[in-house]
Amino acid sequence: MQKIHYLCYFIIEFHLLIKYNTMRKADLINNISEKTGIPKVDVLVTLETLFKEVKENLSKGENIYIRGFGSFITKKRAAKIGRNIKKNIAVHIPEHYIPAFKPAKEFVHEVKKLQSAKPVEENFDDETEDSI
Questions:
Q1: I need a surface site. Which of 47, 58, 98, 119 has the fewest CB within 10 A?
Q2: 45, 33 in Cβ contact below 8 A?
């Protein structure tokens, strides 16, 4: 019974963590608008244009480098043999390119600094569950 209690607690905490640590496009637009004083419509148009340009340039095979932030690049995936699980047959997957993001060193350093400052959460082991 205790294990079920801890499982429910973990699920609730995980749900709250996802809910409050996820930023959507609307949240990003609101934050930029509040910090800069630019109307939300203008911020939306700017972001949509940025996204469109990134997609267009990557589809042409051009990489985008933003100093201090990171790079939007295309990665080449080699041809390989995959498997269709439902039909249990081998399938040839041709060579293809996928979009990727490679963060700059400064960006990675800032994220690591933030994560190391967070408090350590409680860890529930099987031993503590049985002893409670």
A1: 119
A2: no
pLDDT tens for the chain, 132 residues: list them.
Answer: 444 444 444 444 444 445 567 889 999 999 999 999 999 999 999 999 999 999 999 999 999 999 999 999 999 999 999 999 999 999 999 999 999 999 999 999 998 988 776 655 545 455 444 444
Distance between CA atoms of residues 43 and 27, nearest Å: 12
The candidate with the shortest Cα–Cα distance to 63, out of 96, 34, 102, is 102
CATH T-level topology, domain 1-62: HU Protein; Chain A (4.10.520)
**CATH class entry, domain 63-118:** few secondary structures
Query: 72: which residues sit within 8 A by CB, 6+ positions away?
Result: 54, 57, 58, 63, 64, 66, 99, 100, 101
Residues of the chain with CATH 4.10.520.10: 1-62, 63-118
